[in-house]
What does this fold into?
Amino acid sequence: MRLLSAFVWVAMSVSTVAAFAASAPPQPERIAIPRQGGVLHGLLYKPDGNGPFATIIALHGCSGLGHGGQIQPRYLDWAERLLKGGNAVLFPDSYGSRGAGQQCQPKQRKIFARRERVADIRDARQWLMQQPWVLHGRIGLLGWDNGASAVLWAVRPQIAWAGRHDDFRSAVVFYPDCRISSRLGWSTRVPTLLLIGAADDLSSPSACRQMVDDARGRSALARIVVYPNARHGFDRVNAPVHAVAGGGGRIGADSKARADSESRVAGWLAR
It folds into this structure.
């Protein structure tokens, strides 16, 4: 009887450890990429094995990559999902690398999507192209708000540093600010998917729709999905809708939009 009890206890312990291991979040590798005037720090999530792996460069939003050395839950959640799909994910830390805090308010803004953050995309891509575990031809882009705006700039045909044969495979952007790009006649050289909420009062759904519509016929594939009633940050993890600090809009999760976006992102990046 004692032997049976001991066996049951051991089995339960092994099961508990296995369950904990299965639920433990993936641990990133902290990397440093040379850039002009300094170093671009980042977090790299990589599947087990030698690869080569399809790889996503993921651009954080205006509030930064994380706080206190911890990545924001939204980005960790996306990293886990992309890892399960067999992708490596590189998060360049555009703000922390420059000693800057969040850049959400105009008076805080010192790092710009079309300048420093496009340079970070370029430097991250160059670094990835030198890694033996990266599957060349399968590097994609993913971005949120300010990071999404940077992606929109980086995929324009005018960007000269993109090689024709080793360009980005595809791009996905969450709720970028499309107002400037729309006025400048935006188009893309790689398949680009834009996801935004109809109730987004921080970005401009109407400007994004106009931007994508105007690109038809002179652009690579560009698609937009506008989610009814969804707000800025609809893909956040367990984030009730609330007012943004300092006023100016509301952000928060939307379960239906979030679930649909998860499916669309996986399909788009795997194309």
User: Anything to note?
Assistant: The chain is about 35% helix and 25% strand.
